[in-house]
Amino acid sequence: MTQTVRKASCSCGQLRVTVTGEPVRISICHCLNCQQRTGSLFAAQARWPRANVTFEGQSTAWRRTGDEGTVGEFHFCPVCGTTVWFAAPVDGDTIAVATGAFRDPDFPKPQYSVYDNRRHRWLTIPDGIEIY
Questions:
Q1: Is-contact 89 45, C-beta < 8 A?
Q2: CATH assignment at residue 64
Q3: Which of 3, 46, 66, 86 sits a CA distance of 20 to 30 A from 24?
Q4: How many domains does the chain have?
């Protein structure tokens, strides 16, 4: 049986990530930091074990401390500015990839929606997603 291989990239294509296998978690985050970082209502990401992720191209890293004190290191393209992936020491050995970077409308839906208390009130969450 062949493993699923997905490729993500920044807008200009310079920073690329390849993942193998299925993600261990798919989520959306409504925290104010993610809203500000993405310029959108929430951030959407999928996580894989670090061993299942390969990187190509140059990235610039930026660290941010979240609401609960955890630090995330966000990697973005120094050419076009797109955030493609991030890691948090608290997560140990996983890499999160922005789901929009896959450019795949059939990408699986999130399993979790976090920081729901900061979700824009008019935004509805699809059925079957755990809300925190």
A1: no
A2: 2.170.150.70
A3: 66
A4: 1
